[in-house]
What does this fold into?
Amino acid sequence: MKPILLHLLTLCLVLSAQPSFAQTASPPQGQSKGEDASAPPKSPDQALVTFFSSGHFLKSALPGYKHGEFLGRIMDKDGQLAMLTFDHFVTFRVDAGPHTFSANSWLLPTPQTGGHLKLDLVAGKHYFVGAYTQSFLYYTRFRLEAHTCQEAKEINEKTEPLDPKHLKDHGKAMYIPETAFPDCL
It folds into this structure.
């Protein structure tokens, strides 16, 4: 079989075999909105970071396309924040200062082989980070990319809040529950 066809077949099999955490659930009726991520952080020494997965599913199979849909772990250094699923977003309240965020496969619990993004977070600011896959002929690379608020709003018109059951221990204390993608201030 030609390498490109083998790659497309493998990618289709991986993407169609979503694990149980990739299932989405509707929030219970009457659920409160929670905190507003548009509001400034509670502590003057914190920033807000919204991670999202809004890549293109079909284009994910094209070699070199760098905005494919992401399904996997989001980490801050070695601490796992959440298991981000297709077409979802999640916001965290994070201490200001230098951070190395990473995105990796849902199969790999460490950040070493994932995509990394170094940000020096400024207190009181809100950051928007897209998580993507980039396919090549024989492998897939995970990527994180910083966006402006306006860019993030435009490409997240249909994303939904991540179900809290996908949060990891490190991210639970920093999580901000939301019902809609954060507004730009």
Summary: The two ends are 52 Å apart (CA to CA). The chain has three helices and ten strands. The helical segments are 3-16, 149-155, 169-172. Residues 54 and 95 are 26 Å apart (CA to CA).
